[in-house]
Amino acid sequence: MNHFKLIGATLLAWQLLVSQVAYASERIIISGSNITEIVFALGAGGQVVGADKTSTSPKQAKAIAVLGHPSNLSVEGILSLSPTLYISDDKYLNRRLNSQLEQANVKTLILKQAINIADLKQQISLIALTLGKSQEGIVLINQLEKELNELKELKKSIKKPQKAIFLYGKNSLLIAGQKTPVDRLLAMAGIINPASFEGVKPMTPESIIIINPDLIITVDKALAGKGQKGRERFFGIPAIGATPAGKNQRITTIPISHTNLGINTPKTAKKLFMEVYGTPE
Fold this sequence. Notes:
CATH topology of the largest domain: Rossmann fold
CATH class of the largest domain: Alpha Beta
CATH architecture of the largest domain: 3-Layer(aba) Sandwich
Number of strands: 9
Shape: globular
Largest sheet: 5 strands, mixed
Strand order of the largest sheet: 7-6-5-8-9
Oligomer: single chain
Distance between the termini: 65 Å
Strand content: 5-15%
Low-confidence stretches: 1-21
Number of domains: 2
Mean pLDDT: 88
């Protein structure tokens, strides 16, 4: 009996070792900055051979962000990196690309886009399972829960909620409304999003007057390296200049890679909370 137990234990250990080697030998391609952050947080960043150009976080990912935008990836560019596994979400679902990769014997893991925390946890769990890092996935989810609970405690100290709008866009400015990833970020930070519509809409003078924000939030690239000129793009608009945000010249930024719901959303929300409300007494 003991002999059979020993053989069984040895066989199990061997199977686990083979599985670990198999997982570790994966050559991973990632599409989506939020997916990239999860893979690196699970400790599998060393297996990533390529990612889309939005995958700039963490810093180690910049060197492998050699592919195009998630909406316009080419199968040739991906296959040139000899991948064995392709991970993405369905925000920019490309069935033809996925089919071509599968025909080339590249495994594909296409996840549901995270629009809430439950979706995000599912992404973490499925990626962790696929990479043989289930325990690391549990640790990451627990850390996420801890950060969310810290935010809940911080928000109890808010005496006067502030209103902020998220403006972005290369040529014309857009406003992020309700049920967008940024809207959920603001809610985490205890900041009111006064844009009553759902989704994203172009900014108009009338909409700014109605919204009347206390603060403007944009992406880091909108102000990076432009000094006062970057701020003038916003505060130079008369309608914005007439709001509390314009009168007090209140503007802050978040990383462009954090405009999607991801594992760094609570950290970004905490940063916003501190900038808007300060450290609780």
